[in-house]
Design goal:
This protein is mainly α. It folds into two domains: about 60 residues, Winged helix-like DNA-binding domain superfamily/Winged helix DNA-binding domain (Arc Repressor Mutant, subunit A); about 130 residues, Four Helix Bundle (Hemerythrin (Met), subunit A) (Up-down Bundle). It contains ten helices and two strands; from the N terminus they run αααββααααααα. The chain has a two-stranded antiparallel sheet with strand order 1-2.
Length: about 230
Amino acid sequence: MNEVHVIPGSADSVAADLERAILEHRLPPGTKLGEDEIGEVYGISRTTVRAALQGLGHRRLVEHRRNRGAYVAQPSVREAREVFEARALLEPRTARSAAERMTDDHLATLRAHIDAEHAALDAGENGRALYLSGLFHIEIARMADQATIEAFVSELVSRSSLIIALYWQRRAAMCESHAHHAIMTAFANRDGPLAEDLMKSHLLDLLTSLDLRNHNAAPNSLREALGK
């Protein structure tokens, strides 16, 4: 979910645009990613499209089905539980480390993420709010100065976005305002143990807000989803 600067029209640029559309739920799980349609939308060759989809496959955001093409990935119920179990193992300790290393600049960055998330919610852009919420968690891992953990958290947060799209039960499945604000208070006080406990509770709340029985995502038109 990291923001990167790439050359427009390149495989990396198209992959980044598709990734954001997936993470903002404009392209829900199960959406077919037709090579011809993507090529037409972006004005690029099928070779470039395939390279972009291959990159998203490596990030486990796209599934390649034999003789059927590429689709936005659909995590199973089992994987959904495993992803949040892994986050519960990694992120609380990362939050503690971030609190111990917290600076005023870090706090300002995190507050900006929360403000942007609130603005998206107020505008009814729930998918964008979820995307920004994920970036909030990734920033915490970065501030903990744990590069390896940050890479794991980034992938897990991306998978979580797909899981929420599939198993959405209520709006609480997005990171609720009070949860992030409570964590921010712990960060402001440089209180590592409290930040760890709050993050653990937050992730548990996220898991329990999902209905791990039903799929409720409906694929959209690629052109409409990508705003082209």
